[in-house]
Write a structure and sequence with these properties.
The structure is a single chain. By secondary structure, this protein is α/β, with parallel strands linked by helices. The chain has two domains: about 170 residues, 3-Layer(aba) Sandwich (Rossmann fold); about 70 residues, no CATH class. The chain has ten helices and ten strands. The strands form two sheets. Strands 6-7-8-3-9-10 form a six-stranded mixed sheet, sandwiched between helices. Helix 8 links the parallel strand 7 and strand 8. The N and C termini lie far apart (about 55 Å). The relative contact order is 0.15.
Length: about 280
Amino acid sequence: MARDAEHDRQRDRRAEQATAREGSRPRVGDRDDDVVFELRDVSVRLGQVEALSGVDLVVRSGERVAIIGPSGAGKTTLISLLNGTTTATRGEVRALGCPYARASARNIRATQRRIGTIHQRFDVVAQLRTVHNVNAGRLGTWPFWKAALSLVLPRDVPRVREALAQVGIRDKLHERTGDLSGGEQQRVAIARVLVQQPDAILADEPVASLDPTRGLEIMKLLLDISAESETALLASLHDVDMALDKFERVVGLRDGRIVFDKRRENLHDDEVRALYTIDQAPGSP
């Protein structure tokens, strides 16, 4: 019995030490309905290149997070990791509670339907009318017959019209998408996300192809949608000033590693400058 008591004491001490190491940081596997995305010690190797290395990140419901960093930092890889189109080499990735590495293909697809992703390239079919491109946001939830029929006879037109009204191009419902301007095509992509009714929005350089004025309009639109629906928004941006001006939390990525993750008011100018300085990462002597 004495040996059992000593064993229990040692076990308790180990548990206390583990708790001290972890602190208040959420752990993979903990139930937290507020967590939308969770990465723990995640690395991604693409061929001979380690695109991400040892990344830890938690994004909660309603947060608006900007990812900044130089070209090749791993921003696009991070976005594709979160929406399940890239697989982690090491570590654990959870999206809306789904552990990608251990989930079934069906559960992964169900999770992806709950995540709206907006790309720099707009990802619209130029030959189709706007109503068809917007309805593409519903394809994952429709049976095959309905999806196929929608290419001939548009479905749920009132809902599409409402989404287009939200993004300011209600009158473009039946126009050929390829005839729209770049800013209007990006609005179509956002309307597609709106009809999807996602629980989280990922945006990979969503304004990089637009002029500054149109870029600000699109970013304000995304932020307003996130705020009104209390939906998490995580956007990778090349425009540092926009990230610092519009987002409440900024993550700096360089060489596949997170070098800072701070609220805007706690981020110093020298940290941002160092992020983009050649041969010098933040914290280097």
